[in-house]
Each structure stands twice: as C-alpha cells, then as structure tokens.
Design brief:
about 400 residues, alpha+beta, 11-stranded mixed β-sheet, 15 strands, Peroxisomal Thiolase, Chain A, domain 1, 13 helices
Length: about 400
Amino acid sequence: MRFEHASIPLGGAWSSPFTRWQGSLAEVNALDLAVDVTSRALDERQVDRDRIERLVLGWTVPQPGSFYGAPTVAARLGLPGVTGPMLSQACATSAICLEHAAAGIEQGEAGLTLVLATDRTSNGPLLLHPAPSSAGGAPSTEHWVLDNFQADPNTGQSMLQTAENVAEEIGVTREELDEVTLLRYRQYDQALAHDRAFQKRYFVPAALPGRKRGVPQRLVEADEGIFPTSAEGLAALKPVLPEGVVTFGMQTHPADGTAGALVTTEEQARQLSQGEGVARILGSGVARAEKARMPKAPVPAARKALAAAGLTFADVDLVTTHNPFAVNDVYFHRESGIPLERMNVYGCSLVWGHPQGPTGLRAIAELIETLRLRGGGIGLFTGCAAGDTGAAIVLRVGD
C-alpha cells in the first residue's frame, strides 16, 4: 500500500521496556500496562488529548476486559469520545495497525490517530471450548499461548521447525548463525552505552504496583531478561531439535510489553514534533511464504512495501527486523544484499524478546531514532509472523 500523507512526528513513537516471561510484568494486565505507559508518553510529549480523533489497538493475547479493549482504553486515557478498531495478526500486529492508521489518514477519514499495541505472553489464558457432542459433553481446551507456539494448524509444524526448514534449504551453518546472533547482542550493547542513552530516546517506563500494602510502586525502566551471551556460550549450546542447527541462544524469548505511535498528516506531524521533523510512512506490504517457511516471509513483504513506495533494497539506509530466529536475518541478507551490520544497529527482538503485538512498534521506534541520529534517510522494518506471514513498513525520516 502506498502512502503520500501519513506521518509520525519525530519523538512520536515509543515503547516500554520489555520484560522476560514470568518477569516483572507477568501479573500486569496488558491493557492496564498500555494505559499507564501511554498516559506517561502523551504527557511527556505534551500532546493535547483533545486533538486525538481515533485509536487503533493491537493485541494478540486476550486479557480480562479485552472484549471492550479499544473504547475502554480510550476512556481511561481521557479520550471519552474516541474509539477505533482492535487488530490482531500475531507478530505482524504492529505493522498492520500502522498500515490501518496510515490508510485512514490517506483517505481523509481520520486526523490524529493513536496507535497502541500491547501484550502479555506470561500467564496466557486457558480456554474451554464447548463440545456438546463429545463424550459426556466435555469441553476441549486450548492454552492460547503455549498451544499456538507448538504448531501451525495449517502445516502441523512448529515455528522452530520452520527455522530449521529454511536453514537446511539455504545451507546456513551453525557457526554462521552463532556469528549473526553474537553480532545482534553486540549491537544491543551499543544501546546500553552511556547509561542507555539510545533507549532513553524512546523508552517510557512502566509502573509496577506494589504487591503489598504500604509498598510503593516502582518503575520498570530497562529491559529485563537479556541473556548473557558470548561466543563460547553460544558454541556450547546444543540444537533444540535432533540433527538441527537452531539453539535456544539464537532464537527470541516470549516477553511482556507495550508500544505506541502517533500517526497523522505531515502538516500536523510537523506541528507535534515542534520543529524536529517527521517520519513519513511511504509504503507497507504483507506477504506469505510457502508452507512451513516462516523466516522467508519478511523478504517478499519488504519487496511489496518498497515497490509501493517506488523504492528498492538499494535505496534503503537502515533496516530493523522482527527476527525470532537468526536464520531470518541470514536469509534476508542473502536476498536483499543489505549488509548484516546495517540491520538492527541497536539490537532486535532476537535479543530483547517478543511480546508479539508491540514487538514491531518497538523496532519501528528504534528505526526512527537510529535514522534521526544519522541525519535522516530511508528505513525499512520487516518481520515474520505465525502462518508463514510477513509484514513490512517503509518510512523516510527528515526535517
């Protein structure tokens, strides 16, 4: 999809820190987290809430109250007259939410749109599905998170198996995957330099209520759950699957978090950025790879987004990816020709984890801030999602 008017004001994309599975945010409702972090983000950016006309809410793991998610979140944010859609497409949710918001701007149907994505993979629900014709009328059960991690119902294969399928097909070695993984951790270390100066450009802390009476809340200000990683440590790990090459060290981990962005016209984005410039959304794309080849999907999605924007891989300055497996980035590098060093300059979901819905928005916030530091340019976000799906967003950062 091509866009000519939709923009994000610079400084208008943010993320909470991400915390590990069963970590600090494991008992915080993802909608509560979104309200807390977004309130702080809007206040810090001095956004007049009366100017917000629409909300797009993305989530993939049901939470108590999520049936009324978007209008309830809007009301709690002090936006009583605002509502909008709730969107879910697994790991592609953020990109789909941005695409939807940008399309509304493009068609003149919406003004300032607040895009939020929030998820808690910790403590996912156990669903009971009625089955009256079963023995004794016993219901069937589904663990929303764990069961869907295990297998794609279309192929019967797990996401991990899709990574092994692509690794075998392209002939990538265990050593190459370890090298890419180590590069990503070194890049993440750059985001921690000077007391996390880079992350503080877009991070918004999350409040964690005190669990005991009289104990004050504390703020989660940094990622939790980053695994200490070295070349020796990676080399010592055994593959997860027999005869495979993928280890736990070269794949992401489930996490909890939230992220957001303001999407509006270029003129209004310039006003909101107070002279800092804008990130123009140029194009979006979605694609589907062949069965059980999920790590391939970001490439055709990226090609579609670039084609919509009238660009090619040669025009791209920097890339961020949702890369649940190191093989994703190897395949993307080989197909696009973009050096691995120009991808995920300050880290990625392989390192800081994957809450699903907000993962892409965090990567896009990092992409915008990285381009700002280099004086602008063309950025591409692309990532895979369950069902051998990929989604991509192309943007240009400038004055």
